[in-house]
Amino acid sequence: MNPSISRFRATPLSLSLSLSLSLNPMASNDVHSHRDEENGGATCIATTDTQNSSNHRSDCKKYEIIDIDIRSEFSHHDRDVARINNGSFGSCPSSVIESQQCYQLRFLQQPDDFYFNHLKPSILRSRQAIKTLIKADHVDEISIIDNATTAAAIVLQHVKWSFFESKFNPGDTAVMLHYAYGAVKKSVEAYVTRAGGHVIEVKMPFPIASNDEIITAFRNALELGKSDNRKVRLAVIDHITSMPTVVIPVKELVKMCREEGVDHIFVDAAHAIGSIEVDVKEIGADFYTSNLHKWLFCPPSIAFLHCRNPEVANLHHPVVSHEYGNGLAIESSWIGTRDYSAQLVVPEALEFVNRFEGGLDGIIKWNHQKVVEMAEMLVKAWGTNLGSPPEMCSSMAMVGLPPSLEITSDSDALKLRSHLRDCFRVEVPIYYRQPKDGEVNPVTGYARISHQIYNTFDDYYRFRDAVSNLVNCRFTCKLFQD
User: Is the pTM of this model over 0.70?
Assistant: First the structure.
């Protein structure tokens, strides 16, 4: 059991369905076939009233699932859809949704009592859980916010003021990956560029073959950022890029930034927590953010922002409320009347995770193994290639689509995504890769597939057969233009 999260186990549980740390092929087939049964396994739910003065959950009923039935936990999913896009919006089990609804009702029943007596202690409880999960030193380093995009706004707003207050010089640079998330790029434009900073994008190849390609490209960008007597004031580094998806050697890049004297290092790890191991002390960035509603089974929307030195950073939430000036963690805990329930159920999400053998580590290994297995099955069926080696995949992988589909633009990719969703009931993002000069019959379209514990083999077979059907019918994206 992962010692960093075993403390959140409420009671020992007898499991009929578990993820084996050995992850042998026979075990994986057994689990998938179990989940494909019409009625699933037996589910026993014990309901008890719990009294706990420290976390104020006395009014909430606690559900302990003795036999985990994944199908029932995700029965709210449309069973007629091959949902292989967990990376975009995540997923939340029914037991966590029930806990969230309990908090929502308690606020509506008596808002004054909830606000004055329960909200902040409950948020602190979630912050403490996150602190343990990411191996931070102190809970003061953890702020809970809506999503990683909010975290980017907080950090980049701080950088903006450094320009406005003449701590940074006009023309000083910010370095970020070319494949940074679109909203983060817009935030850099909104805060850093408008304040007088110069932005350098790290050009990365795709498909990518090794970490060395990323490290070399990043080093070259830092050198460019220091040219003409400028200073690199900010580095924005993805831990897992969104599209195309690749696990970035973040520790090596952070170390490089330290050696080059970069002022602020911000790691955008929107997809990380619940998908790969996260140790913020080992990574060593100034700021690190990740969403909990993507891969950690929390409802939307909740993320954390880890600040290595909160007493020095002087960060502020973009929404100024009555808590302004009390530190980012407190400012973020109240930004006006809104639904905070998603931020309160982190311990319940971890209880769900810990019902699996190996806890979060077991789920991470399981999802990685299965997404690689499914990705390799698809490229074999279509005669294409992966976008990166398996070791550079997390719980997501890039799968090359047949060249005969003739994906020639971002618009084609978006329309093909809609076509697969509307006509074949397959939800999967599509990425357009511009071919290089001289390439013959290039793979220009890649699908980003995800694997979460609710997925079955049939989800990926449906995707395989849908694409094969399009190829056999001589479908091309030119038809979208007719």
Answer: yes
Query: For 258-297, how does the pLDDT look when each residue is reduced to its tens digit (9 = 90+)?
Result: 999 999 999 999 999 999 999 999 999 999 999 999 999 9
Band of the pLDDT at 21, cuts 50, 70, 90? very low
Q: Which residue has the higher pLDDT, 422 or 63?
A: 422
- What confidence tens digit (pLDDT) does each residue in 369-393 have? 999 999 999 999 999 999 999 999 9
Tally of CB atoms within 10 A around 231 = 15
The rounded radius of gyration (Å) of the Cα atoms in the chain is 23
Q: How far apart are CA 301 and CA 346, in angstroms?
A: 12
Task: Give whole-number Cα distances, 279 to 239, 241, 251, 274, 355, in Å.
Answer: 12, 18, 10, 12, 22
CA distances from 359 to 6, 18, 272, 372 (A): 8, 9, 16, 20
Q: Are 243 and 429 in contact (CB under 8 A)?
A: yes
Dist CA 219 CA 212 (whole Å): 10
* SS3 labels along the chain: CCCCCHHHCCCCCCCCCCCCCCCCHHHHHHHHHHHCCCCCCCCCEEEEECCCCCCCCCCCEEEEECCCCHHHHCCCCCCCCEECCHHHHCCCCHHHHHHHHHHHHHHHHCHHHHHHHHHHHHHHHHHHHHHHHCCCCCHHHEEEECCHHHHHHHHHHHHHHHHHCCCCCCCCEEEEECCCCHHHHHHHHHHHHCCCCEEEEECCCCCCCCHHHHHHHHHHHHHHHCHHHCCEEEEEEECECCCCCCECCHHHHHHHHHHCCCCEEEEECCCCECCECCCHHHHCCCEEEEECCCCCCCCCCCEEEEECCHHHHCCCCCCCCCCCCCCHHHHHHCCCCCCCHHHCCHHHHHHHHCCCCCHHHHHHHHHHHHHHHHHHHHHHHHCCCECCCHHHCCCEEEEECCHHHCCCCHHHHHHHHHHHHHHHCEECCEEECCCCCCCCCCCCEEEEEECCCCCCHHHHHHHHHHHHHHHHCCCCHHHHHC
As a whole number of angstroms, the distance between CA 289 and CA 265 comes to 12
So what's the pLDDT on residue 482?
Answer: 60
| Tokens matching residue 392 | 């550079």
Type of residue at 389: P
Strand partners, 177: 202
Nearest to 296 by CA among 242, 372, 250, 351: 351
341: pLDDT strictly greater than 60: yes
Per-residue pLDDT tens for 132-164? 999 999 999 999 999 999 999 999 999 999 999
- Pair of tokens at residue 190: 């909104």
